[in-house]
Amino acid sequence: MAEFTKVTTVDKLPPGRGASVRIGATDVAVFNVGGVFHAIDGVCPHQGGLLGLGRLSGCVVKCPEHGMRFDVTTGTSPGAPPGGGLACKVFEVKVEGDDVMVSV
């Protein structure tokens, strides 16, 4: 069974925003896309930028370091061929009451 950790609350992460959090030794980027929460690996696989600090446009975050883009719902880079390009691990998210919970 997956173990979930509270990372924020619904009111602290409004739609269209992201945040960087740390769960144990894992950096996680959490995003609110139109009221639905998503979480991916928090460190860009390209140059190590913190994705939670990137600009979110729809469901795509742009890394603040070098501009790589990742779909926060799939972890894939838009436009990359299937199975190709850089990708981020996607983590399971659930909301319990006002708490946003992530399993790494």
UniProtKB/TrEMBL annotation:
Superkingdom classification of source: Bacteria
GO molecular function: 2 iron, 2 sulfur cluster binding; metal ion binding
Pfam families: Rieske
Rieske domain sequence ranges: 5-102
Keywords assigned by UniProt, alphabetized: 2Fe-2S, Iron, Iron-sulfur, Metal-binding
Name of the protein in its database record: Nitrite reductase/ring-hydroxylating ferredoxin subunit
Species: Brevundimonas lenta
Species classification: Bacteria, Pseudomonadati, Pseudomonadota, Alphaproteobacteria, Caulobacterales
